[in-house]
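Human: Here is a favour to ask of a fellow structure person. Comparing notes only helps if you start from a blank page. I am asking you to supply a protein in sequence and structure-token form. Write it directly below this note and I will take it from there.

Assistant:
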Amino acid sequence: KNLAKVRYKQFSQILNNIGENEGGIDKFSRGYESFGVHRCADGGLYCKEWAPGAEGVFLTGDFNGWNPFSYPYKKLDYGKWELYIPPKQNKSVLVPHGSKLKVVITSKSGEILYRISPWAKYVVREGANVNYDWLHWDPEHSYEFKHSRPKKPRSLRIYESHVGISSHEGKVASYKHFTCNVLPRIKDLGYNCIQLMAIMEHAYYASFGYQITSFFAASSRYGTPEELKELVDTAHSMGIIVLLDVVHSHASKNSADGLNMFDGTDSCYFHSGPRGTHDLWDSRLFAYSSWEVLRFLLSNIRWWLEEYRFDGFRFDGVTSMLYHHHGMGQGFSGDYSEYFGLQVDEDALTYLMLANHLVHTLYPDSITIAEDVSGMPALCSPISQGGGGFDYRLAMAIPDKWIQLLKEFKDEDWNMGDIVYTLTNRRYLEKCIAYAESHDQALVGDKTVAFWLMDAEMYTNMSVLSPFTPVIDRGIQLHKMIRLITHGLGGEGYLNFMGNEFGHPEWLDFPRKGNNESYHYARRQFHLTDDDLLRYKFLNNFDRDMNRLEERCGWLSAPQAYVSEKHEGNKIIAFERAGLLFIFNFHPSKSYTDYRVGTALPGKFKIVLDSDAAEYGGHQRLDHSTDFFSEAFEHNGRPCSLLVYIPSRVALILQNVDLPN
């Protein structure tokens, strides 16, 4: 509690400093309105940069025939530089839309460096060029949003997406392709939130969008900024909110088209020396205590909210930010000494509190999610209590548990108690996003859950015309069960990575030298689930109906489940949540007739979801017209119970039909 007070005090102090020196966080977070290059109302040009280590700063480009020194910036206090270029006499545009620019830096050691402004809004790589070019983005007609932001969803069902790999063709897909072809699928599947990866510009495609070079630029490899706005707007028209995967944990080492060495020194936006480099990621680390770094990052947060109308963020690499050791070589046991001590980077934590404060002040309905593997306490508690201010954290132990079970244990050796523990091990009032697998598990070197389950047989036996082999049968049944128990028990939100809902085969691998620049694994084969002769459609149907049932019943926003049974011998797990009774039989071969399951309430129950149904590739062993009657017969600590037939490898949801909906 004392530490929470200390953290809140540090946050308040910086917020007050921003108030005294900058007129408040509202003004402070609008850095993009003055920094960078701007056309003025009079037709002139106003430019501003922060380059504390520079000897001189100049603007050059197509507009002045690339003369490096004809437009020098004037030096201001605190390492800032500004330039005003008066309008031409004929009032024509000084720097036309789409023309190339560079900031020229003369360093203290006499070097002449050509740089892209950290505030650049659009950069492109042309032809066979290695580096990106900065293009002045100032279109005559920018996209006008037609739809308002949807209300904050009661339950969060997230479809984690990457625009570039969203088509089945071996190429980089576009914002337009995603808007026209993928958004309708997401809507149909019952997801109400999209988490967009790899949007902030990154020179290296194979970094999956995690080595950012231009923080204010939407990646041009998929299209224009206006086309991204149309994507977000179209999602909003469908009632789907859109979160940005924001990478403020580190930055690319590129200097020709990144932030590194911007002013000719190894500091500027980053810590100088060893503290400024992440050894594992080979990237630069921000100096979160620096005033101008705070302005840059907070303005970046605001830019994506205001300019593109994102509804919030998934903060990447939070563990790396929180600790000086960046989580490397650490196995977090949950001991509180691991979270409070000199190893914590309090400046980074204060930045995250400021970012969450800004997001939720500007747009109270916004959502922020922390990707933190360490389990830092109070990360999702309100800032006023000294917490981090996040709405949710990712439940990162859950996918690891499923992969461990699939890799290391026979089905009959799966420990029901261990599964339940992993799915329910979260702090009271700390909201978690549960997932069976995300993009992490799909990356080359690992495999999707479907591929762990069915592997090579997916190439030969996924046709409905081929025999239902034991491997394919097991794979299809467990795929559904793993997803439903994660969805029902694992958190207050649910996440799925695109394509995994229908058991996408193989793995993800981006074009790179090591695979001869191949796009073969950098795509999503949605046509597989559209093919009526393939079994992928069964998994897709189940995912859709599971999400739609959650929308109707709201178990993600209900209090945590009451688990009445985790039977090791029978391999049965039963729990109640949101007035529904969830029953899972993980036994590979045993079915149970008249199996007694505890419930809170008496009354008539009906099956509302059955993984064994024909449309989900099941064996149709249950009669859905059956009524199950719960009676006042105490069982497993519940006042009532009912008898039910539970076939092997089946997941069931029963609903009390006597209760008002």
